[in-house]
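Example record for the data management plan.
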Amino acid sequence: MDTPASEESIPRTSPVATARFRMRVAAGCLLLLGLAFIQAPGLLVADTKFDLVADPLGFLSRAGHLWDPEGALGQLQNQAYGYFWPMGPFFVLGDLLGMDGWVVQRLWMALVLCAAFTGAALLAKAMGVRSDAAALIAAFAYATSPRILSTIGPASIEAWPSALAPWVLLPLVIGAQRGSPRRAAALAGFAVAMVGGVNAAATFAVIPLGVVWLLTRAPGKRRNTMIIWWPVFTLLGTLWWLIPLFVMGAYSPPFLDFIESASVTTFPTTLFDALRGTSAWVPYVDGSWQGGNQTITLGYLALNSGLVLLLGMAGIASRRNPHGVFLVLSVLLGLFLVTMGHLGSVEGWFASVLHGSLDGVLAPIRNVHKFDPIIRLPMVLGLAILLDVVSAESRRERLDTGAPRFTWATRTPVLVLALVAVVGAAMPALGARLAPTQGVAETPGYWVQAAEWLDEQPGNGAALLAPGSSFGDYLWGNPRDEPMQFLANSRWAVRNAVPLTNPGNIRMLDAIEARFNQGHGSPGLSRYLARNGINHVVVRNDLRPSAELPDPVQVRQAL
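Corresponding structural encoding:
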């Protein structure tokens, strides 16, 4: 069990050194801000919810209701309430200030990167790393880790929990050493609340590291106080989205049965990919996720991130690591959670049983790659500890004529290797490859005109977008969400990947799509549309051609 240092034995830094470290952290954040703004400048990208940037106030007003009467002939909103904090207000503020949408998106991307960088740097310092350079290099490695580079462009809300994971652990680390343990528990609970509730599994993934930390502290009043109060504050801080989640679960169709399966989500969760951070499955099948796709297809990126991994493991295994038990147990727990259910030539115990459970009772956590922070944060802390040991020998060499453990001949290659590996692993960011492909300069005017015309029509009928498509991928850009979602005030429907509506509605849309695919219409089709409340059909001639989609000409023939 790791033994926390007493308050008197905690290394104290001078005000000058503290100010210098803060200035260096600020400089790192400026660098990350610059990296964010070189990603697809001037273009809106399909990040999480397109209407969050196109119409943030309208999106949040709809998120206040479980039922959306406009989309999919009426549908449940899937965890839209989770955007009430912090992502939604951020975009609303940018909109009220009159900023361009793409600028707000890049500022949010910079905030995610800076939160990850700053949190990891402060956490390394709190865990006893004396060298500023060691803490900053490790923090940069965390902010540009493969998972964050994979998700920050196309799904930044999945990168946000990784960015806040250090902030959840930081108060508990400090509270184990000094100050009020109850206040530390409250700050850790507040950090969990800041993660938001868009995805419950991703939010839960920031908690296990804190649990392992507290369980590996020496028994005593300080630890017991945090063990009691942290769950209380965490529950209070998450009730704002837990209650709507349970309400949604009571009415939601079983959409988890119709989306990705365990065979899809676990095929890349090999031992090496879990350790390296490339366990997310989407970049393997979607080339538009540029950052993530490059981390798995470019050999030099695999080499660089592998070197970062080896250096981190060396730091964890170091005899001078005062937190070895905590870091080892955390990595083992993270490996279990990320690799569970993986079937292959190398698989863990009970892999078949867990694989089946991920399609059953464990379906809510089927995307096991979301537990990556439980591995990644200990790895970069190990890197910081290794570089700090090397730097400590450098300082000791200048003060002591005795033979140090590291000489210049052995010390310099370690520092150079770490710096080259960390910078090399961040090349997708440096090469402006974080944003998804096919950004949007603006929504075409004819879509605005169509939405306005439909709003003016009498009655409460719906407009069907045809042909159907899994996502909104158009010749003019790829917002993934449909333009009607942020343009129309009337009812509309489309057969997309998984409409959050009842199975009867989905079967009805499938029947209509089958007729469109055949290109053969009839008076019966017209009556069928009318009986189901569809008064208009919007033929989408601007969809990006695909072998999976019927030609719009066939739709026109059917009509």
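Summary line stored alongside the record: Confidence is low (pLDDT under 50) at residues 4-10, 397-404.
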